Amino acid sequence: MSHSIKRVSDKRHRIAVIDGPNMSNLGARSKKVYGAIASLDDLKAFVAGFGSDLGVEVSTFSSNYEGAILEFIHESAEQVDGYIINPAGLTTVGEAVRHALEETTKPVVEVHFSNITAGAGGARGLGGGAIQSTLTHTATGMCMGLRQYSYIGALTALVLSLDDASFLGAQP
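The structure assignment produced for this chain is given below.
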């Protein structure tokens, strides 16, 4: 039996994927939390490849510097249909990033390799326990705890919601 994702539109949405501080060290991070993915470049290729399979254009951006992330958001807002962001090291302190994303009025899906709400020692949790993200309360949605597959879940959901004119507030 074959399964595939069925889109209701053939529009080639433009999705920007942003990775924040510490993601550049992906291959050297905890294997328990981050799995076997070897590098940030491997992650970018994985997500872009899946986007191509979905029929959308994925652009990627990463930086260890909040100012560079802000500039990317400001410069890309008119060229993209939605954002996926792993705030990483900015998760608890990224108010400026959250504000910039909110101002774009584009849908935003927050992603995390770990389950940031899990207690210390949880199967997909962080070693230090649960943390509170500053981005979640204005994000369109969130996908977490599924390592690199969190990005695939976020990308699939974002594309299907962009295809559904009534989902993001437009009239059907």
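Interim note for the steering committee: Residues 120 and 127 are 5 Å apart (CA to CA). The first strand starts at residue 14 and ends at 19.
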